[in-house]
Amino acid sequence: MKSAATPEQPGPDHADGGGQDLASLLARVSRGDQAAFEAVYDQLAGPVYGLVRKVLRDPAQSEEVAQEVLLEVWRTASRFDPARGSAVAWAMTITHRRAVDRVRSENAATAREQKLTPGPVTGDDVAELVETALDRQRVRRCLGGLTALQAESVKLAYYGGYTYPQVAEVLGVALGTVKTRIRDGLIRLRDCMEVTW
Amino acid sequence: MSSQRHELHLLTGSYALDALTDAEETGFAKHLARCPACAEEVRGLRETAARLAMATAVTPPPRLRQQVLSAAPRVRQLPPPARGALSRAGQRTVRRLPLAKAGITAGMLALAAAVVFLLFTQASTRNQLQQAQASNRAIAAVLTAPDARIESASASAGGTVTAVLSLQQREAVITAAGMTALPGSKVYQLWVITPAGAARSAGLLPASPAGSTPPVLAAGILPGDRLGITVEPAGGTAQPTTVPVVLMRASA
């Protein structure tokens, strides 16, 4: 669905950016439309791969998980419900969940007793997409408006794929503190980025 | 109890970021079903997280495209959920209606346009088109019903849809203004949708290059039904095949 005509009523797919509207493409994908799926791929592959890579860091694994996610979008397109959020948020929720599941199953299997190694939020050697330069700028600016603890908590949880008890351990603060910092930080980001949903 | 609930409410952020432990996540998911305020907050925070995700976008390896696109046809797709997209899409209208500030004036204009159209056609076709007249009488009956109410909503693809609704008559007169023009292969189709999600066609919205569509009468409307408009192939379909661009509830 396109954004509504008046500025005070942006549509739920405000975050879709330009190009064809992702929500209606997904409706077509749910009916097996492969051309629509190509268009969906072209809109989502960058953010999907980028987010998975941010969380997992290993390029080969990231490619594998990104492929799983994009096929999951194909498989479950009929479950996307525009009344419950934007198409981008739906896809990114699937993406983050998959990436995090991969991280945690690995941690469970191989590194249960190892110390956590923080520092996942670093620069990358891959090409950032020009289309999302504005998103990056805004996110950077809004993250800058958070307290250090809020920003670190949100970044470790989302980009690092840490549970909040793990965040608390890494940052050396109480569980309850992390819980509230993550929520307060996200709410501030929401208001800063003028998320309208 | 209330402080416990407050504690749970603090988990919205961690839940939106998939940062709860498995046990907590299961518990919080149950809580969400009973706490609409929490669900609403999670929704907004997930949209926020999606912005964080968009900012990480990078060019994937080129071979990924071929791998994904060639694998997709071999992956069986899930059928739509049992309750159907239509029944749940209604939540969106509930959210949107209070926002439709602009709709009030636009709605009044559309109503005036409908009435003018009605009088005009009645005068000019009095002796020729009895069928049209009957339809106009039906429209007039709705417009003049003592319980007639005007409802207005913005369509997601642009434009405003106005309905004059009489639950006594069980009928509604619908006009639309400023809708996005469709290619010749597509039409706007009007539906009456029961609370259970069953949809019944109430006809096609006539194309209107000039702005407002002529009024369309939808009959057999019961309290709790919704009026929806979808984009369909020319000629219309037996059942909606796309997500409605607008939904309005016929509450008493």
> Helical content of chain B, roughly?
40-55%
Question: CATH first level of the largest domain in chain A: which class?
Answer: Mainly Alpha
**Nearest-integer average pLDDT of chain A:** 84
Radius of gyration of chain B: 23 Å
The gross shape of chain B turns out to be: extended
How many runs of DSSP E, i.e. beta strands of chain A?
0
**How far is the first residue's CA from the last residue's CA of chain B?**
36 Å
Structural class of chain A: mainly alpha
Main pleated sheet of chain A: none
Helix count of chain B, per DSSP?
A: 8
Could you give the count of β-strands of chain B? Answer: 8
Q: Main beta sheet of chain B, described?
A: 4 strands, antiparallel
User: Which fold name corresponds to the CATH topology of the largest domain in chain A?
Assistant: Rna Polymerase Sigma Factor, Chain: A
Largest interface (C-beta under 8 Å): A-B, 92 and 68 residues
How large is the share of residues in beta strands of chain A?
A: under 5%
General description of the model:
The complex is a heterodimer of chains A (197) and B (252). Chain A has 197 residues and is mainly alpha-helical. Chain A has two domains: 18-114, Rna Polymerase Sigma Factor, Chain: A, CATH 1.10.1740.10; 122-197, Winged helix-like DNA-binding domain superfamily/Winged helix DNA-binding domain (Arc Repressor Mutant, subunit A, Orthogonal Bundle), CATH 1.10.10.10. Chain A has eight helices and no strands. Chain B is 42% helix and 19% strand. In chain B, helix 3 crosses helix 4 and helix 7 packs antiparallel against helix 8 (130-143). Chain B has a four-stranded antiparallel β-sheet, covered by helices on one side. Chain B is of the alpha+beta class and 252 residues long. Chain B has two domains: 1-51, Arc Repressor Mutant, subunit A; 87-249, no CATH class.
